[in-house]
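[step 3/7] fold_predict: job queued, chain A
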Amino acid sequence: MKGARLDMPRWGMVIDLDKCTACQACVVACQVENNVAFMGPSEAQRGRAIFWMKLAAFPEGKFPESKVRFMPMPCMHCDDPPCAKVCPVDATNITPDGIVRQIFSRCIGCRYCTTACPYTRRYFNWYKPEWPGESSMALNPDVSVRPKGVVEKCTLCHHRLQNAREKAISEKRPLAPGEYIPACVESCPPKAMYFGDLDDPNSEVAQLSRSSRAFRLLEELGTKPKVIYLREGERSGVNRS
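[step 4/7] structure written:
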């Protein structure tokens, strides 16, 4: 990865679809943690609802044997992100540890990145968000409230990483495994989501990423997503080769 340092982690996520119950706890946790605005029914009907974490539904089969499968979808945080290539002001870029970040104060709202993203995991903020009454007291002070006219996306709760790093630096120690976990992973009741350093061969997320059940969305496009899914089926067998 361009700009990476050998001593930096490469953060990634594994989602076990065999464990996921589609409870949407990850969706709610992401909304609350990152001050994601609720746009209301009228804006949702116009396709303007904002969800940094989406629970995608995929119907399979024909009635009466039909069923629906669900897939949690955050930003894929690609190693070769097409969104970063088209941003004219470098508001979208990739950090040395692999997080595709969005610098809201730099974004000019041209939406080139939303067109370039094959996973449709970016949202344009059409209106200035409002927090009526006491609801504004529930906002997370560690995360900014985005203004009108910028693109929003999942940042893997980057503010949590910053807090964990500052604590580790103040205590003069390295960042401990499991000290930095996004809100969606922490809130998952069936523990279907795993997070960690993909470059650490001993980490659980790295081992699961080599499972025979592992796959990446639209991998044939060459974006190299760091969100890996485990197919539904047997939960055994990690390929360590």
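[step 5/7] annotate
The chain has one domain: 20-230.
DSSP finds seven helices and ten strands in the chain.
exit 0
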